[in-house]
Automatic annotation (TrEMBL):
The keyword Hydrolase does not apply. It comes from Lederbergia graminis. InterPro entries: FtsW/RodA. It comes from the Bacteria. The chain crosses the membrane at residues 12-33, 39-62, 74-92, 148-165, 171-187, 194-214, 290-308, 320-337, 357-377. The lineage of its organism: Bacteria, Bacillati, Bacillota, Bacilli, Bacillales. This is FtsW/RodA/SpoVE family cell cycle protein.
Amino acid sequence: MTSQKKQIPKLDYGIVLTLMLMALVSLIAIYSAQASDQYLANFALQQVMWYVIGTIVLIVVMQFDSDQLKKISWYLYGFGLLLLLGLAVAPITDFTPYRNGAQSWYVIPGLGQIQPSEFMKIFTIILIAKLIASHHLKFADKTVQSDLWLLAKISFFIILPVALIMEQPDLGTSLVFLSIYLGMIFVSGITWKILLPFFSTIFLVGGTVLYLAIQHADLLAKVGVDQYQLARIYSWLDPYSYSSNEGFQLVQSLLAIGSGQTLGKGIGNGEVYIPERHSDYIFSTIGEEFGFIGGSIVISLFFLLIYQITKTGLDTKNPFYSYICVGVIAMIAFHVFQNIGMTIQVVPITGIPLPFISYGGSSLLGNMMAMGVILSIRYHYKKYMFASDNE
């Protein structure tokens, strides 16, 4: 009898192929968006550059195994916090400009705008995954007290970046962190005796705030909620009454997607004016020019990617990797739901991009970094199948 070891292929070609298809969709959609008279810059060519840089980042990140990621997790998190803190204390300059109502970027000569919060998402996911995995090794015998301590640690290291991001202010990105937070504590092993009242409280508070925004906005105004934030709620619920200001983008987006019908108007034939149609409203461009079929293909690609990440998380026997997969899924899923949802009036408008599709260097690099970590799981995880032959 002989035993033969066979190692499963290191590279997950399924995820690689999905990313390549998303890159193709992104370049076609951005090229189509810039065909209108709205833009003079060649965003499609710039997106190619960001994809090249992002691929290099992905390959580099893929070289790190779980032990190395754990060792550098604190350094990555601390570096991200320093970048966010720098924006919080920096005066408004050409290096740290105030744009689109927020001070969220560093401007690097020759490279462009860099948004630290996009990288901080994956840094935080890695750190939280390490905290959960290390906690369970230390507290093998779970108690309510140990679970409360784990919840407190996760909450603390989420609150720090969120507080700095809200200072910019950037509500959309803060909500992404909230999604990551909820997703990771959901699978953290914390007892439902804690999680059930915890989640109930969050949904109760969120529902109450939404109710007050709709029915009693004056009460929220008294506690410091800005009028422009309330206007976003009103323009979401009734965009046509606000079509000359806050509701303009949503009205145009609905018109564009609706006019695309089943097959769309064709590449470069967009007729509806939509601000930021190459970035935050890229799905509106896809809906108008490629129709219901084009939009369905994009959504299907995201379902496929999330399925592939889920399978990766289930296949690995390393809890640290599994928690990372959950964090990345929560991040991508919220981005997709929020971005597409805001273009079709399902959720209020927030300025977050569609992952891998929207134009934007920081967003793409952050997502490619996340996928580099996901690909490193299969790359470094040695799973062997044993075969026996009778002689």
